[in-house]
Amino acid sequence: MDEIVAKSKLLKMERQKLKEETTEQTDELDKDWQSLSQILVPKLKPIPIRNKKDNYDSWLKELTTEVTAKPTDRLKTTEELAKEHKELLDQLEQKELREQKKEK
User: Fold this and answer.
1) Region for residue 37 given its phi and psi (left: phi exceeds 0; alpha: psi -120 to 50; beta: otherwise)
2) Within 13 Å of residue 63, how many CA atoms lie on the same side as its CB?
3) In the chain, which ranges are E strands?
4) From CA 93, how far away is CA 99, in angstroms rounded?
5) pLDDT of 22-36, one tens digit each?
6) Helices (H) and strands (E) in the chain, counts
């Protein structure tokens, strides 16, 4: 039993030591990153302020005249397609009958 307790305490101490080392390394890397980020990130120039009303008006005009989505023709049902097909056939038949009458 004492052996199990000793092993448990040893593992706990190893985990604590590993956690402390990780924390130290993280802190060191954070310090390094801060110094690097100051070098790598360029100083940002302030954006010149223009007449806000002119910009707003131009953006508003652009947005109101902007073409968004266009509506499309809806899909027809099978009944509507059948009806159109029948009407087309009727028109062709009437046209053919008229032509036959003219020939006689």
Assistant:
1) alpha
2) 6
3) none
4) 10
5) 999 998 988 888 877
6) 3, 0
**Confidence band (pLDDT; 50, 70, 90) for 54?**
low
From residue 93, how far is each of 26, 69, 79, 104 by CA, in Å?
87, 41, 21, 17
Q: Which two tokens stand for residue 33?
A: 């990153």
DSSP label of 37: H
The pTM score is 0.35
> Cα–Cα distance between 82 and 89 in angstroms, integer?
11
Least confident of 8-17, 30-39, 47-56, 75-84: 47-56
